[in-house]
Amino acid sequence: MSDHVHVRLREGLGVNDDGDLVEQFACRCGAVWAKTYPLEGGQPDQ
Ligand SMILES: [Zn+2]
């Protein structure tokens, strides 16, 4: 592939096993990303 600027299209929202909000993105080329939003007041050490 030549230079390609990924376009992050939001695919959906979900919740992972830790209960954090996960936003999923995908480009039409097949690249995918996931952005996690930790819950406010969460305790990372648990
Ligand atoms: Zn792409």
From TrEMBL:
Organism domain of life: Bacteria
Name of the protein in question: Uncharacterized protein
Species, as recorded: Kitasatospora camelliae
